[in-house]
Amino acid sequence: HQPVVLLGMSAGGHIASLVGLDDQWRVQAGWIDRPVVGVITSSAVLDLYPMRRNPLIRRLAGRPGSTSFQMANPVERIHPQAPPFFVIHGTKDGLTPYQLAERFCQRYKSTASAERLRFETLSNGSHLDAGRWMYIGGELQRRVLNQAEEWVRVE
Questions:
Q1: What's the rounded Cα separation, in Å, for the pair 133 and 141?
Q2: What one-character DSSP code corresponds to residue 11?
Q3: Rounded CA gap, 116 and 38, in Å?
Q4: How far is residue 78's CA from residue 33's CA, in Å, rounded to a whole number?
Q5: Alpha carbon separation from 92 to 43, 99, 113, 136 (Å, rounded)
Q6: 3-class DSSP state of 115
Q7: What does residue 151 show for φ and ψ, rounded to 5 degrees?
Q8: For a tag site, which of 58, 74, 114, 130 has the least CB within 10 Å?
Q9: Against a cut of 0.85, is the pTM above it?
């Protein structure tokens, strides 16, 4: 079965992380036979709890503490066998605060593995800066693509 590297920015990174972390989401997507060998997120909503008062988060995920909220919260889905993650986030992101990525990475290190995590901090980077590597070549694009290729090769 062909391995999959999931990639997403902002809400797409939220979805990619959920699909990567929970087999249930992969079953619903019809990908259960395709192993997720890595997840790359840019400016993703990786921890819903700090945004729990946001009306959109409440509407989509439900009340904090509810089963639906926990199922929709990537930081709550981390487990010891979680696939590797490459998290990219800017410190000046005005839409998805940098602290969401920090909290996710801290939990990932303690629950899964520090060795399987790459956390790329973009100093003074905005929400869109974290996704710019996808369209403009450069060092970050090279590192992301090399990492994805390595994950697929190892599988």
A1: 5
A2: H
A3: 9
A4: 20
A5: 10, 10, 27, 20
A6: helix
A7: -60, -45
A8: 114
A9: yes
Residue with tokens 């909290």: 103
Q: What residue type is assigned to position 139 of the chain?
A: E
| Tokens at 125, concatenated | 């980077």
Separation between Cα atoms, residue 66 and residue 138, nearest integer Å: 42
**Per-residue model confidence as pLDDT tens for the chain (155 residues):** 789 999 999 999 999 999 999 988 888 877 777 889 999 999 999 999 988 888 888 888 888 889 898 999 999 999 999 999 999 999 999 999 999 999 999 999 999 999 999 999 999 999 999 999 999 989 999 999 999 999 999 86
Six token digits for residue 88: 């990219």
Give CA–CA dist 38/86, Å, rounded: 8
Q: Give Dmax over CA atoms of the chain in angstroms.
A: 42
Residue pointed to by tokens 């959109």 = 56
